[in-house]
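User: I'm designing a mutation panel for Transmembrane protein 209 and want to avoid disrupting the core. Could you give me a predicted structure to guide residue selection? Please restate the sequence first so the numbering is unambiguous.

Assistant: Good idea. Sequence first, for numbering, then the predicted structure tokens:
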Amino acid sequence: MSLRDKQLKKYQYQVACRTPQSAKSTSKDDPDDSVTYGPDEWLRSTILLRVATEIETINKQLIRIGCEDMEIGVVSISTLKQLAVSKSLQLPSLNLLIPFLEASTNQEYLVHRVKELARGGCMSSFKWNGGGSFKGKDWEEHLPSDAYIVMHLLCSYLDSRLPPHPKFPDGRTFTAQHFMKTPDKPNASKKDYCCLYQSSTNPPHYKVLIADDVMNPRKGRNNMFHAILLFFYRVQLKEHGMLG
């Protein structure tokens, strides 16, 4: 067993029953019947649940100040940015939430899906190669996939945890340095280069790039979670748990 497999194995537990929703997302490309509890529950409780709660809190504040027609999930992201400036005293946390909401221009679906993924344990409704039904219709490819939403929220969360950097005035310090997606090409010439790389959009597939080396978790439902684990394991091993 390789070192990578040993590290992943400790995060895998006994087989658990899938929910009807998650069962639909399985396919012949998903040979792993085990459920990865560690990273998905951490993502749900640490990021998705907090984002969903903050959305509810700000929407209540909007109603309180007479802006009930401008709730998050109803208006565009550009309108929210204007609100964050014009109502900064009444809505002090809106500006901090906006980067998380930039995952999709379809704010109604995004907010709906974030709330769904935040409910229950271990993101039981997560569909690695799709998303949730919306307004009585099945998920379609023009909507962001669950994997895309969760990865965007993770990157936004890590952006918010790193100190400002003059090279990245937009505040996307982690994203700019440690996340990349096709068709962009990584900079393999840097010896300390390490990033999460989305090599495919449909179906989503993630790898971890370390200089000129590639760590490629097997495809399927757990691919994104395993890539995240491998990335943080490398940061812990080589960077003493420090990013920046």
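For picking mutation sites, this is relevant: Residues 38-163+170-238 form one domain. Residues 1-29, 31-36 have pLDDT under 50 and may be disordered.
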